[in-house]
Amino acid sequence: MAKVVVIGLPGEAGLWVADLDAGTVSAFQPPAGSPLEAASKLRAGGAAINKGVNFSVVVKSADDAFSGHLDG
Prior knowledge:
72 residues; 3 strands; 3-stranded antiparallel β-sheet
């Protein structure tokens, strides 16, 4: 199974791609005309798109995550 995730956060226009095997996160621009670009345009209109992810949560900082805090 691939361990790469494309991430977008509310209030932030850009997307990010996280490669979990490499331990990297990079700014990401979906290729023009691609399904990811279409999904990104839906997201810009307020849609939430989830595919192949069974857990995600936003926390205020990495320290909060490592201490077990969950914003909500």
